[in-house]
Amino acid sequence: MSNVVVYGAGGTAGSRIVGEAVGRGHRVTAAVRRPESVTWLPAGVKVVTGDATSPQSVAELAPEADVMVVTIGGGERALWRNAAENLITVLRDVPNPPRIIHVGGGATLLTPGGTPYLEEPDFPERYRDAALGQADALALYRSSADGLTWTYLSPPPMEFHPGERTGRYRTGTDHPVTDDEGRAVLSYEDLAVAIVDEIENPRFENMRFTAAY
Questions:
Q1: Tens of pLDDT along 160-210?
Q2: CB-neighbour burial class of residue 43 (10 A; exposed 0-12, middle 13-18, buried 19+)
Q3: How far apart, in Å, are the Cα atoms of 63 and each of 70, 71, 84?
Q4: Has residue 75 got a pLDDT over 80?
């Protein structure tokens, strides 16, 4: 059993990660900006006011955590970079700091030609700021998280939607995991399975991985 803090626990990914972790016997703290908005989370979840970009929030929750999962949303580029930078900065000063698992963007995965999907000419402009922010966060973990244990999970770059929990998936690192038709597909439910599997059996420490069917 692990003590798991989930930032963004009220979101599409975060709520499923909370449910998966609770269902597998972990102690979960849901850190959200407005606790009154997540009364529907599973029984037994501790709900607190929390923000991954707040030094005070991370400093308060870190001492009792084994893992901090960051799954936050928004359209501003600075959000993800600030969250990663804050966790790295604060956790360096915490004795026995928790592991970080950051749910990042699929647009940072690489095309067959070796460039990030976010650099493709037809990449949707409305997602660009978010994709750049997730790229900033990944770069920070790779360059500045010495002494910490982190994992960055990128879902598929396009076909990633709420759906069925199958409990199965395949993993890769910097390129999408594709099927025989060249599609990379994953449900939010199975993303949560992959996250909790990584909590229980770490395989991708200090690196990025991706998952799909």
A1: 999 999 999 999 999 999 999 999 999 999 999 999 999 999 999 999 999
A2: exposed
A3: 16, 20, 18
A4: no
What's the residue count for the chain? Answer: 213
Residue given tokens 């500045």 in the structure block: 144
Q: Could you tell me which residues come within 8 angstroms of residue 19 by beta carbon, excluding any fewer than 6 positions away? A: 41, 42, 192
Q: Is the dihedral of CA 191, 161, 106, 110 positive or negative?
A: positive
Give residue-wise pLDDT tens across range 8-66. Answer: 999 999 999 999 999 999 999 999 999 988 988 998 999 999 999 999 999 999 999 99
Are 57 and 50 in contact by the 8 Å Cβ rule? The answer is yes
Provide the token pair at 162.
């709420």
Contact, 168 vs 185, CB < 8 A?
A: no
The token duo for 16 is 């499923």
- Per the CB < 8 A criterion, the answer to whether 81 and 137 are in contact is yes
* Dist. CA 118–CA 131, nearest whole Å: 6
**C-beta neighbour count of 200 within 10 angstroms:** 14
Amino acid at 93: D
Q: Is the pLDDT of residue 138 over 80?
A: yes
Q: Could you give the CA distance from residue 65 to residue 200 in angstroms, rounded to a whole number?
A: 14
Beta-carbon contacts of 141 under 8 Å, excluding residues fewer than 6 positions away, are 84, 88, 100, 102, 150, 152
